[in-house]
Design goal:
38% strand, 6 helices, alpha+beta, Alpha-Beta Plaits, 213 residues
């Protein structure tokens, strides 16, 4: 399985083209051969979940059976509007949970032997009853992640503002990522609260090998 996450930034005065693309891109994606799953998403201003949208930056997630390029209409649109593209090519290796009720990256093991450079996608559908508690903890976690050993980069992406949110991050190694996720007291406590207080109606956690070229 082949996964591509495209983060695209439009020039300041062309943010409207990114907004419009979220409607127009549906048609070429629907028609794309071998495409198993896709999402068109906005992004937050900071590197993780964020209430404040970045109107110039947008995201496209594509999941294919085999490596392939994005539909020509999409790449042509980005070129037409002089959008800066950051493309992450990924191989899902481990994880759990569902997205729209589906195992969108296949039936993955919860853990693998891979220990190298790793990308992580954490997403959730937040219950209305859990919104306040969820957003109370976001800023503190984002600040600690950005300064954590092994952290390379991250971006907050979302299908629905406030409710359907995800963070994509890249780390130098799985060991360093796990040290942040499971050893940092504040992050451990938040993970515990999500389960105890049942903030989510659906959640998913997936790790990827980053395909280097």
């Amino acid at each position: 399985m082949y996964v591509r996450l495209s983060i695209v930034v439009y020039p300041n005065w062309l943010g409207w083209a990114g907004f419009l693309s979220m409607a127009l891109f549906r048609f070429p994606l629907w028609l794309s051969s071998g495409l198993r799953f896709w999402k068109l998403m906005g992004t937050g201003k900071n590197g993780t979940f964020d209430k404040n949208p970045d109107w110039n930056r947008w995201a496209v997630l594509e999941v294919y059976d085999a490596p392939t390029s994005s539909p020509t209409f999409i790449t042509g649109w980005w070129k037409l509007f002089n959008a800066t593209q950051t493309i992450y090519e990924l191989e899902p290796i481990e994880g759990h949970g569902l997205w729209d009720g589906k195992q969108v990256f296949g039936d993955l093991p919860k853990n693998s032997d891979y220990e190298g450079k790793i990308a992580v996608l954490t997403r959730a559908t937040i219950k209305l009853s859990g919104l306040k508690r969820f957003w109370e903890h976001v800023d503190a976690i984002a600040g600690q992640m950005a300064s954590a050993p092994g952290f390379i980069t991250s971006v907050g992406i979302g299908e629905v503002p406030f409710i359907k949110q995800a963070t994509f991050s890249i780390w130098e190694s799985k060991e360093l990522m796990r040290s942040f996720a499971y050893k940092l007291p504040l992050h451990k406590e938040v993970i515990k609260k999500t389960h105890q207080e049942k903030w989510y109606s659906e959640d998913m956690f997936t790790r990827f090998k980053v395909i280097e070229k």
